[in-house]
């Protein structure tokens, strides 16, 4: 479930101001197999306060605050990051409504999706590939957090990855073809 939007400088795009969209719910954790030392255990349940309409209304007010009022081409925000729980476990219809609202204010800025699914599971599963949050992403971070492979503090080569098993892909789209995925070198 969509939980909240917030401004951050810490996700995905170095030196950018990002809107972080936070989703609650992780099926892996709720099935009893969470990532060891997950840093978002409060986001495991698919529960939030208030109705979806109320949460979207709050997001819309925030988006208005984060947009320059006199300019359609200049924005306060450079990118969107999507985190959770597990974003690809979210209801596609609700995710579509969140993205529609975001695109009203920020039609062109890139989206960086964080998923705990590995590439193989994602690429084999059409529902994940066609999930609205993946379908609109410019970059996708794949892989579960693995405590034993934690990225060392201050390690510049993988600044947006919690553990060294994770990878980032750029999503390349052309009009008449399915998306292509290019693994980015972050070593």
Commentary on this structure:
There is one protein chain. Helix 2 (52-65) packs parallel to helix 3 (92-105). Strands 1-2-3-4-5-6-7 form a seven-stranded mixed beta sheet, covered by helices on one side. The mean pLDDT is 87. It has one domain. The protein is α/β, with parallel strands linked by helices. It contains six helices and seven strands, in the order ββααβαβαααβββ. The chain is globular and about 45 Å long.
Largest sheet: 7 strands, mixed
- Radius of gyration, rounded? 16 Å
| Broad structural category | alpha/beta
Which strand order spans the largest sheet, edge to edge or round the barrel? 1-2-3-4-5-6-7
Task: List unreliable stretches of 5+ residues.
Answer: none
Indicate the proportion of strand residues: 15-25%
Determine the number of helices (DSSP H or I, runs of at least 4 residues): 6
SSE order, as H and E?
EEHHEHEHHHEEE
Return the domain count: 1
Mean pLDDT: 87
| DSSP, total strands | 7
Helical fraction equals 10-25%
Task: Report how far apart the termini are.
Answer: 34 Å
What is the molecular shape? globular
Topology:
Layout: E1 2-8, E2 18-23, H1 27-30, H2 52-65, E3 79-84, H3 92-105, E4 111-114, H4 119-124, H5 126-129, H6 132-135, E5 139-142, E6 167-172, E7 180-183
Parallel strand pairs: 2-3, 3-4, 4-5
Antiparallel strand pairs: 1-2, 5-6, 6-7
Helix pairs in contact: 2-3
Features:
187 residues; alpha/beta; seven-stranded mixed beta sheet; 7 strands; globular
Summarize it.
The protein has 187 residues and is α/β, with parallel strands linked by helices.
């Amino acid at each position: 479930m969509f939980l909240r939007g917030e401004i951050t400088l810490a996700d995905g795009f170095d030196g950018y101001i990002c809107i972080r969209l936070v989703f609650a719910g992780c099926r892996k954790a709720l099935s009893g197999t969470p990532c060891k030392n997950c840093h978002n255990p409060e986001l495991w349940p698919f529960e939030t306060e208030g109705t979806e309409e109320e949460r979207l209304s709050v997001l819309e007010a925030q988006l208005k605050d984060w947009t320059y009022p006199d300019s359609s081409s200049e924005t306060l925000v450079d990118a969107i990051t999507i985190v959770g729980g597990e974003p690809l476990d979210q209801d596609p219809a609700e995710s579509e409504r969140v993205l529609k609202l975001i695109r009203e204010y920020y039609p062109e800025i890139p989206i960086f999706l964080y998923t705990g699914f590995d590439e193989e599971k994602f690429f084999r599963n059409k529902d994940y590939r066609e999930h609205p949050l993946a379908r609109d992403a410019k970059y996708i971070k794949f892989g579960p957090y693995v405590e034993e492979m934690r990225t060392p503090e201050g390690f510049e080569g993988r600044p947006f990855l919690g553990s060294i098993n994770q990878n980032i892909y750029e999503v390349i789209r052309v009009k008449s073809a399915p998306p292509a995925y290019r693994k980015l070198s972050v070593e």
